[in-house]
Amino acid sequence: GAVVSQHPSWVICKSGTSVKIECRSLDFQATTMFWYRQFPKQSLMLMATSNEGSKATYEQGVEKDKFLINHASLTLSTLTVTSAHPEDSSFYICSAREGGRETQYFGPGTRLLVL
Amino acid sequence: GENVEQHPSTLSVQEGDSAVIKCTYSDSASNYFPWYKQELGKRPQLIIDIRSNVGEKKDQRIAVTLNKTAKHFSLHITETQPEDSAVYFCAASSTNQGGKLIFGQGTELSVKP
User: In terms of DSSP bridges, do strands B86-92 and B32-38 run parallel, antiparallel, or are they unpaired?
Assistant: First the structure.
């Protein structure tokens, strides 16, 4: 149980394009999902928290107009990187949590390379 | 906001030895402390967690201790095996912050056969 999937696992795009990443909870209802970014050899940095049906809460320093987050259902959250630039290249990982529970389960991550 | 410090950044042990990783946190309201293991290019996997109403928790070769007064918690791995080699992250969260996890910097554990 408690499986989280992410799609795509790899994406290469040109600078200036937008990229959408999907995060799905496969066997539970995720009232809250979190989006992290991880650079090589570094820790996971929380970008934003999204609750189903409401606007995401962004961490300080994260541009909400650049990283659009939608959590339209209890099993799906999406992160759209708009007008991507090479400095946005990173490993993006989502996690999901069931309502009333503390444990977060992570997706397999999406490696984004912006050329 | 919460800040989590983790030490050491790298740890090398011989197979069969014990490994200890330590973390400190700053927010006294934090009440949930998970540990994750991440292999290269993979997702973080929860290995053990502890809540603030408990001082110690053990699961086979893995144990976690929590000292709320000092605001630090530690991961103990006994009888280490080469497959324990990975990066380990501690994290802290509080209910009044929506349960978001703040991670430590990570410890790269290498178990030499």
Answer: antiparallel
Q: Is residue A114 helix, strand or coil?
A: strand
Return the residue of A nearest to B30 by Cα.
A102
| Pairs of residues, one from chain A and one from chain B, whose beta carbons lie less than 8 Å apart | 52
Residue B102 gets the label, from left (phi > 0), alpha (psi -120 to 50) or beta, of beta
Indicate yes or no: CB of A95 within 8 angstroms of CB of B32.
no
In chain A, what residues touch B36 (CB-CB under 8 Å)?
Answer: 106
Instruction: Answer whether A102 sits within 8 Å of B93, measured CB to CB.
Output: yes
Q: Is B7 on the interface with A (CB under 8 A)?
A: no
Tokens describing residue A84: 């991507």
The whole-angstrom separation of Cα A109 and Cα A17 is 20
What's the pLDDT tens digit per position in A4-56? 999 999 999 999 999 999 999 999 999 899 999 999 999 999 999 998 888 89
pLDDT in tens, A70-92: 988 899 999 999 999 999 999 99
Q: CA A84 to CA A77: how far, in whole Å?
A: 19
Beta-carbon separation of B44 and A42 below 8 A: no
B94 CB within 8 Å of a chain A CB? no
Name A113's bridge partners: A12
State CA B49 to chain mean position distance.
8
